[in-house]
């Protein structure tokens, strides 16, 4: 009797899990499949085609949005990685009563709603007179990506054995040599994972970018939004599929590096 109950619970759990995966991934699968559908309207499958991807690559405004996305993602991720790495080391080794409060400030951008973050950044830029454009998007992305990098690197620092630093100093290593040859190699998996995470977040961000973008600074998420206002077309499906594949590719390598942390 007990065995039947256990089997019943397992079947129920498997059913719920299966339904959850279907709910999460069926829309994504449908999006990818419809991007190869020859029908311009509707969801009825009429044949396989690549013409929507060909049409997508011929649109100059899409390429401009792609270039803006790549530039902002790379530059903001590099800046956030540098700032976040030094912030993590400072918070980890800094001994003070303010350490707890500083930690709260680091975690705050992680829990603030994106729309609130976007509005606050917009108000700030307008108040200081900074014109909206690529620079404001860059600053906004660095602002919310720094926290993710800091948390990721601090996770790596939790397993840091400070005795190796003392050993290096006893052997005559200078401060910059200890940092470059001892500390950085040990926390490098956390740094790379933080960079890849920032890259993914920057590429996919829509809400914050929507508030701080200006003329000529359209990114791919904003481009998809502007296109979908006129109706869903296979070209949008193709663009969304490429964006999805790109972020999944980055996330895959990011997860591989994160496995080195835990």
Automatic annotation (TrEMBL):
UniProt subcellular location: Cell membrane
Keyword Ribonucleoprotein: no
This protein's UniProt keywords: Cell membrane, Membrane, Transmembrane, Transmembrane helix, Transport
Predominant subcellular localization, coarse grouping: membrane
Annotated TM spans: 12-36, 65-94, 101-126, 132-151, 182-212, 232-253
Residue span, ABC transmembrane type-1 domain: 66-254
InterPro entries reported for this sequence: Bact_Polyamine_Transport, MetI-like, MetI-like_sf
Membrane topology term: Multi-pass membrane protein
GO CC list: plasma membrane
Stored SUPFAM superfamilies: MetI-like
Pfam families, per database record: BPD_transp_1
Family named by the database record: Belongs to the binding-protein-dependent transport system permease family. CysTW subfamily.
Name the record gives this protein: ABC-type spermidine/putrescine transport system, permease component II
């Amino acid at each position: 009797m007990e065995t039947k109950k256990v089997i019943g619970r397992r079947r129920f759990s498997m059913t719920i899990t299966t339904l959850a995966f279907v709910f999460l991934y069926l829309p994504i699968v449908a999006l990818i499949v419809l991007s190869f559908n020859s029908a311009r309207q509707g969801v009825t499958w009429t044949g396989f085609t690549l013409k929507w991807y060909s049409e997508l690559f011929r649109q100059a405004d899409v390429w401009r949005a792609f270039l803006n996305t790549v530039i902002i993602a790379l530059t903001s991720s590099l800046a956030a990685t540098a700032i976040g790495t030094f912030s993590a080391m400072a918070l980890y080794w800094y001994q003070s009563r303010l350490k707890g409060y500083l930690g709260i400030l680091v975690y705050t951008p992680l829990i603030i709603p994106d729309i609130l973050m976007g509005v606050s950044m917009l108000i700030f830029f307008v108040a200081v007179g900074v014109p909206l454009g690529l620079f404001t998007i860059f600053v906004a992305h660095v602002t919310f990506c720094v926290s993710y990098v800091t948390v990721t690197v601090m996770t790596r620092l939790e397993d840091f054995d400070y005795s190796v630093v003392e050993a290096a100093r006893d052997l005559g290593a200078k401060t910059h040599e200890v940092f470059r040859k001892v500390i950085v190699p040990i926390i490098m998996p956390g740094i790379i994972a933080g960079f890849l995470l920032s890259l993914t977040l920057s590429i996919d961000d829509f809400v914050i970018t929507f508030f701080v973008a200006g003329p000529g600074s359209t990114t791919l998420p904003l481009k998809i939004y502007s296109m979908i206002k006129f109706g869903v077309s296979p070209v949008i499906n193709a663009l969304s599929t490429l964006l999805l594949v790109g972020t999944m590719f980055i996330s895959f390598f990011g997860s591989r590096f994160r496995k080195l942390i835990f």
